[in-house]
User: What shape does this take?
Amino acid sequence: MSIFKKIMSLNFLEQLLPGCYLMSPKWSTDSRGEFIKTFQSSEYRSLSINFDIREEFYSVSQQNVIRGMHFQMPPHDHEKMVYCTSGSVLDVLLDLRKEGYGKVACAKISKNNRHIIYIPRGVAHGFLSLEDNTVMIYKTSSEHVPTHDCGIKWDSFGFDWKLTAPPTLSKRDEEGLANFDTFITPF
Assistant: This one.
């Protein structure tokens, strides 16, 4: 039996990249609405993941917004858990670790499918918002340190975002990130 079968409130769906897990929480529904548990420390520990949440934040994006590909540099690098509470995204992961450098994975996550992605240190994260007013929740294992904030330019690593129009980008995402082919990884 796989270790993933032992998780109680999360269903393991697939490993997107080594150590990057796509999961679906179990939930209950009644006349009041829904109850969804997104995190339980003991279940992550059963996967040998000691994910200690230090910061949580969320973003609200309009359709065709790209945010990414973001990460923090050591010693302030972090693990991240993301999920969508409104709308939907094409979530994209870029492996910056030496053993998997340049590998890319993606998954659609949405309010409707309730998917959660766990992202280890050394993996850049970004997404394309597929709907207006899409809300993404982020839980991280370290606090944001602006001097160690980093990223790879969204269009520099060969991923096909399947865009039908030019994306909406922040100035940072458009001009302030490294190109993949010149980035030297510390991971």
Notes: Confidence is low (pLDDT under 50) at residues 1-7. Residues 53-182 form a domain with the Jelly Rolls fold (CATH 2.60.120.10).
